[in-house]
Write a structure and sequence with these properties.
The complex is a heterodimer of chains A (302) and B (542). With 302 residues, chain A is an alpha+beta fold. Helix content of chain A is 36%, strand content 19%. Chain B has one domain: Cytochrome C Oxidase, Chain A, CATH 1.20.210. Chain B starts with 6 loop residues before the first helix and ends in an 8-residue tail after the last helix. Chain B is globular, with a radius of gyration of 23 Å. The chains are: A alpha+beta (302), B mainly alpha (542). Chains A and B meet through helix 1, helix 2 and strand 9 of A and helix 4, helix 10, helix 11, helix 12 and helix 13 of B.
């Protein structure tokens, strides 16, 4: 199997063809009868009241078609369900995903914690443990197939798989408040070796900064940032907002609003509500110099 | 008093003592339909705002708070204040006429239902002035609506607005059920009732079963919000998915509540304009009953991603697929009714045919959603939005338009204009296709629903733009309808009692009917009393 999407695509195509045939049949009959039996002048139609045989036929035929569709859907459900291995012999990788208003937290075994962007190894079943910190969210990456809700007070399990490397976009798929739109996901599927390398770098504490970045760390630790964010290796350990230990390594910030670079980070910190109105991220008033140092520091956290 | 003219039509000024105190089912029916049309326009304007915001990626025409209020009010309006009043209004006017009764069983309660629905609507819309409309979607999923997450009074207005208008709908259902069961004219056995009456009866039973679920959900939410309850708050021992169970126990029957009367109207119109009796009358009634029963057993197909378990999902998948069987029976019987008929493509018939074509698309995508693995992909995407707009606009609204063109002459004594009607029909059919077909593709491409904006570069631009253009085409169609209504009311061609060569009792009385409906109480001996009267040599089998 190439991915956990594949069985869904196969089933969808099948159901799509059946549906298209029925639709074409109905439309052809509709247009044909409307044209063929259009009333001319005079006369009246023969009064036909019904036909028991026809009624039985068009009750039974759909039942048979639906029975086949149902059987195939149960088989497919089994292939993407809770215990699915997707034909892989590898043990599954367990990742905990926690939905927050409005970002995703990924917790890997070994201590790596990231936000909105997660890496997965190809060819390995991924078992996501889905939770929520506040309201109901849903985890969905279309190229990996099924979605599942993230519900406070409940842990859901979603098994995904891909044999193909790539960068796959996704998003929260349950309305969760003001910035539901900017709660996007980026999944990087890569070889086992690349993944292991990425995971160990993400699990590490931050590298102690030097130069302007060291000033930036002081700005960070002295400001209100620390009441929400953690940077492992420093005294900042709050778990309300995204873990920033390796924020510089992520492709996007603010749940997908901005591509991550120095200019974007500066704009974001200067005016979070302008870029993501309603977000929980407040504007922190800093001098230009302090802001520059902070941006240098954060972007250096690779 | 001009005998026979409904009070609403008689008086130029809308607010009069007579209108406020009327208990005549025909007046109340007209009031309901007017209410539905006003909210159709309001909800339509909200839809245009939504589509303007989504026409291009990253737009800032609406801020997210406003967008959330607008899409919540659009859905809530269209379900509770457009579809229900339109259908209840048409039923209010037509059911007593079609069963040969003088009025409904409880005329005063009937007035109460209307005013409750109106005040529920006003209460809901008052929220805009009171600091912000509800903003958690028409489905209002807890715990997003819990006090910790929904500050402000929007959700409270949602609770009271829906509870009050819902009470009106429950009372209307009691009234319909009792009227249909007890007030049929001599000879009209249950097996001779027009299909529209059959469907209204089934709908009434569904309302009585479904609306109390919503009301209890609303009361629990009110307790959570105002009295510190924790029904839906897991951190206080509550359950975050309890709301959804009760909501969809109401919400799925609700889908059939707003489609069964539509089916009923199509089953009246297609035979008349085919010059034949409805094909398979008994099967049409029975399939309606089957849909009614099944509609209470399918609700969790809205919750396949909640994690109820594979076996539970499979069960609700099966019941949801089953409901396609009686629905298919209806479509096949409509087609068979046209078969070897004398088909007249008048505007009501065109809307009926448009209904069948678009509803079949909505029905088939509905089956795809009953297939759990497919649903797990497309649920909560734009595909869903496309699907249920085909069902609700292509279905309920198209059928209501068909009914409007069909019965307007009976209500006003004048025909609606054919040219404007054709413009309205083709704009509607084109608009539905342009606005809602591309949404299916967007969903398959991965665009979630209920998002206030979306990133550029994902290939979603064109489909969104086309959908927005479609929304404006629908708006143009609506303008043609309103122009037609206003113009024909004053200068429309005189209709006479029976402009369509109809079959059922409402066409035996004057247009508009007298206050007491019939000068002599009708007596019937078959399913098509007027056909029997016109064709004594070829009467229906009794």
């Amino acid at each position: 199997m190439t991915s956990s999407l594949e069985p869904i695509v196969v089933l969808s195509l099948l159901v799509g063809v059946i549906a298209a045939l029925i639709f074409v049949g109905v439309i052809v009959a509709l247009v044909l009868f409307a044209v063929r039996y259009r009333a001319g002048r005079g006369g009246s139609a023969q009064q036909i009241y019904g036909s028991q045989r026809l009624e039985i036929a068009w009750t039974a035929a759909p039942v048979i078609v639906l029975a086949v569709v149902f059987a195939l859907s149960v088989v497919t459900l089994e292939r993407i369900g809770r215990g699915a291995t997707f034909g892989s012999l590898e043990p599954p990788l367990h990742v905990t995903v926690i939905g927050h208003q409005w970002w995703f937290e990924f917790r890997y075994p070994g201590g790596a914690v990231t936000a909105n962007e997660a890496h997965i190894p190809i060819g390995v079943p991924i078992e996501l443990e889905l939770r929520s910190a506040d309201v109901i969210h849903a985890f969905w990456v279309p190229e990996l197939g099924p979605k599942k809700d993230m519900i406070p007070g409940q842990t859901n399990v979603l098994r995904l798989f891909t044999a193909r490397p790539g960068i796959f976009g996704g998003a929260c798929s349950e309305f969760c408040g003001v910035e539901h739109a900017w709660m996007r996901i980026q999944i990087v599927a890569e070889s086992h070796r690349d993944f292991d390398q990425w995971l160990s770098s993400q699990a590490a504490a931050r590298v102690a900064p030097s130069g302007p970045a060291a000033d930036g760390e002081q700005v960070f630790l002295a400001s209100v940032c620390v009441s929400c964010h953690a940077i492992r290796g420093t005294s900042a350990s709050a778990a309300i907002g995204p873990d920033l230990t390796h924020v510089g390594s992520r492709a996007t910030i603010a749940g997908g609003v901005l591509t991550n670079d120095t200019a974007a980070m500066r704009s974001w910190l200067a005016d979070p509500q302008g870029y993501k109105p309603g977000s929980q991220m407040p504007r922190v008033s800093l001098s230009d110099a302090a802001l520059d140092a902070l941006v240098t520091y954060l972007e250096g956290l690779k | 008093m001009t005998a026979g003219v409904p009070a609403v039509m008689r008086r130029p000024a809308f607010v009069t003592a007579g209108l406020l105190s009327t208990v005549d089912h025909k007046d109340i029916g007209v009031l309901y339909v007017l209410l539905g049309l006003v909210f159709f326009v309001l909800g339509g304007l909200e839809a245009l705002l939504i589509r303007i915001q989504l026409a291009t990626p990253g737009a800032h025409i609406l801020d997210p708070e406003t967008y959330d209020q607008i899409f919540t009010m659009h859905g809530t309006t269209m379900i509770f204040l457009m579809a229900i009043p339109l259908l209840v209004g048409i039923a209010n006017y037509m059911v007593p006429l079609m069963i040969g009764a003088e009025d409904v069983a409880f005329p005063r309660l009937n007035a109460l239902s209307f005013w409750l629905t109106l005040f529920g609507g006003l209460l809901l819309y008052w929220s805009f002035l009171a600091g912000g409309a509800p903003d958690a979607g028409w489905f209002a999923y807890a715990p997003l609506t819990e006090p910790a997450h929904a500050i402000g009074s929007g959700i409270d207005y949602y609770i009271f607005g829906l509870a009050v208008s819902g009470a009106g709908t429950i009372i209307a259902a009691i009234n319909f059920a009792v009227t249909i069961l007890l007030m049929r004219c001599p000879g009209m056995s249950v097996g001779r009732m027009p299909q529209f009456v059959w469907m209204v009866l089934i709908t009434s039973v569904l309302i009585l079963g479904a609306y109390p679920m919503l009301t209890s959900d609303l009361v629990m939410l009110l307790v959570d919000r105002q009295l510190g309850g924790r029904f839906f708050d897991p951190s206080g021992g509550g359950n975050a998915t309890l709301w959804q169970h009760l909501f969809w126990l109401f919400g799925h029957p609700e889908v059939y509540i707003v489609i069964l009367p539509a089916f009923g109207m199509i089953s009246e119109i297609v035979p008349v304009f085919s010059g034949k009796p409805l094909f398979g009358y008994a099967y049409m009634a029975a399939s309606g009953v089957a849909i009614g029963f099944l509609s209470f057993g399918v609700y969790a197909h809205h919750m396949f991603a909640v994690g109820l378990g594979d076996a539970q999902n499979a069960f609700f998948s099966l019941t949801s697929m089953l409901i396609a069987v009686p629905t298919g029976v209806k479509v096949f019987n409509w087609l068979a009714t046209m078969w070897r008929g004398h088909v007249r493509l008048e505007v009501p018939m065109l809307f009926a045919l448009g209904f069948i074509a678009t509803f079949v698309i909505g029905g088939l995508t509905g089956v795809s959603l009953a297939v759990v693995p497919i649903d797990l992909y497309v649920e909560d995407t734009q595909y869903l939005v496309g699907h249920f707009h085909y069902v609700l606009f292509g279905g309920t609204v198209m059928a209501s338009f068909a009914g409007l063109y069909y019965w307007f002459p009976k209500v006003t004594g004048r025909l609606l204009d054919r040219q404007l009607g054709l413009a309205h029909f083709w704009l509607t059919l084109a608009g539905v296709t342009l606005a809602f077909l591309p949404l299916h593709w967007l969903g398959i491409q991965g665009m979630p629903r209920r998002v206030w904006t979306y990133p550029a570069g994902l290939g979603w631009e064109w489909s969104n733009l086309v959908s927005t253009i479609g929304a404006f085409v629908l708006a143009a169609g609506t303008i043609a309808l309103l122009a037609n209504l206003i113009r024909s009311l004053r200068t429309g061609e005189s209709a006479g009692d029976d402009p369509w060569d109809g079959f059922t009792l409402e066409w035996t009385t004057s247009s508009p009917p007298p206050a007491h409906n019939f000068d002599r109480p009708p007596v019937v001996r078959g399913r098509r009393p007027l056909w029997d009267r016109k064709h004594p040599d070829r009467m229906d089998p009794a």
